[in-house]
Each structure stands twice: as C-alpha cells, then as structure tokens.
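Please review this pair:
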Amino acid sequence: MREAVKDEIIRCRLLNMTAKASWYASQLRRELGLRNRRWARGRAHVESYSNPPVIVYAPEHPTDEDQSLHPKAQERLLGDPDVGTPPERVRHGNFFDAAYAAIAARPEWMRRFGKIHAQGRALPKAESGPNAEPARRWRELDSSMSSDALLMNVFCAPGVAESAAVRRALGVDGDAEPVFGWKARVPLASGRFDRTEVDMRWGGLLVEAKLTEGDFQTRAAGVVEGYRDFDAVFERELLPRVALRTARRRAAVEFPEEFTQEWEDAATDDEVAREFQEGIMALAREAEQAEVGYAGYQLIRNVLAAFAEGCSFCVLHDERRPDLREAWFAVMAAVKSAEMRVRCKVLTWQELAALLPEELQEFLDWKYGIVGPGRMSSPVGDVTDSD
C-alpha cells in the first residue's frame, strides 16, 4: 500500500513537471518565433509549414560578380583572410557574423552543418544554386530554434574561448579549444561502448546545451541500467521514473469511426470534435502497455560519460526554462558521490551573456532575447504573428 502511494506521488510529480515543461517551452518558442521574424528581414530564410511557423535560414555566399570586383571592394565584401577581417557577404542569418566566419574557416567546425534537418519535409524546398547546382538540403543548424546553433554562436565567436572570465565561469583549465559534437565512449555492462554525442567538450568539461527542447528524453529502464557504471554513480531509487507506453496494434473495433478518428486531426474550430477526439486518444493510451523507464536520460548518460572520462558536466539552459533546471537537479540529487556531484554544474545563457563581447551580447539580445542579469531584453511588441 505504501509503495502504491509512493508511486502515485512520483507519477503526479512527473505529470506536473511535464505540463510545466510543455508550457515553458511553448512560450519560449513563441518569443523566438517573433524575434526571428524581425531578425530575418533582409536575410535569406524560409518559414516552416508548422503552426506557428519556425524561421529557418540559408547561408549567403559570394556571387561570381563579387569575385570579379576590385581587390579593395572584394576585401570589404568577402573579408581579408590574412588579417581576419570579417566578411559582409559570407554570412548565415542564424549566426553572429564573426562566429560564422570562424566556423567557415575551420573544417572540423563546419562539419556540424552535415546534420540534415529532421523536419525537412515541413520546409519549403531550397532553391538551386546560381550555376544550377542541386538544391541544398536544410540543416539542423539552419533552424532558429537550434540549441547547437546557439552554442556555436557563442563559443565560436572570436575572443570567447580565450576569455579568462568565461573559462572561470565554466571551470575550464588549459589551452584546449571547444570540440562540437564530441563522441563519448560510455562503457556498457556488456563490455561494449555507447558512442553518444556530447554537444561540446572543452578540455575537461562536457556541455549539454538546451533552448526550446521539451525535455531531456526518456528511456526504458533496461537501456539505462545497462550502463556499466550506473549503480556506481546513481542511487537508482532516487532517479525520476516514468511509465513508457508501448504502441499497441490497431485492433478492429466495433465502431470504425473510433479507430480512424483516433489518428486524425480534429477541426481547429470545432470544440466538440476536439473533445471527442481527445477522449478517444485517452482511451487508446490507457489500452497501451506500459514499462518502467527513466526521465532525464540525456542527463544520466552524460553524467556517466563525465564519470568515465574524469570530466565535469554542465547543462547550459535558458533562464526562461526553469523546468530544465528542476529536471537536472532531480537527476543530480541521485548522484551518490559528493565528489561527482560537485563536477555537475548548471549555467544559464543569461549568466554567460554578461561575460561576452558587446557585439555578441547585442546579437543574442535581438535574436534570442538573451541578456545578462539585471538587464532588460529588447522588446518584441512591434512584431506580430501576422507581420
């Protein structure tokens, strides 16, 4: 009886966290959508077919006409690589100009643009190049909602990785440079390794960057408990649990409309139809089998990666997402060792912004609404959904 009550309390707490996460994430997406609709003016971009639409940017490269200009004019438009002059025409609307120039000059950083946008079908087809090259496929880093793009905007910008203040804030020692999309080797109980991708490794620090993502993902208990160091690092009973629903087979039902409407979208202006559909879907979810899983899977996995590598681990999130901080603290509280707990960190983009160059701070303010503590972000009231 006591265990049943405990499980119900945990379930209600997780449902509450999920509801809050959904609200905070949707509010931030809405604000970023408005800010980027303004920022996108005069920059190559498209809007997704989703509701609300997401701004997705395209790179802008020099044309043949630019290449034929007088050397002085060419330097102004394309930059001078010998002195590091930032270009005016080699840019990407989703990036701070100086950061994108630095990315373009580093093949290992530019490889991050190899990740194709997962929702490419929800976007207009990109135009072909000026010389009839095949249309470029949309990349994840093109999206205005991308936390990886925000991460690279900050840490690829000249002067940031070299800043003593930034290094102190994150606890980074030595001369190491940031590595994006670092492949960890997290040991499994089977003797093999999970080659999970960490957003950034900077010396002895692993970083998970978040912006508008809904949560830190969930995984079945069998997967999470299959890591070699799981019980050495965590008190499993203290970790947040979830009931994972497994998709059921769509069996025949007495009334065919209940089967079809379960998977259809209700008319947006028909409240009765929406309520009817939601009731059908609720019954469908109850009919699905459930298995025990863990919330905060990305956090658990990255803490295990930091433990295996002897590193620290930091979550970088927006202060407008307190739900993410709460989820991180829930996982951090289950870490057994005090020594490992002090290697687990959290920092907001806003706290970091105060340490950055002035021009980068201005970019983060207008495009993301990110400003240092005690400052007011630029207004978005002059931009409307119909603008």
Q: What stands out?
A: Residues 18 and 328 are 14 Å apart (CA to CA).
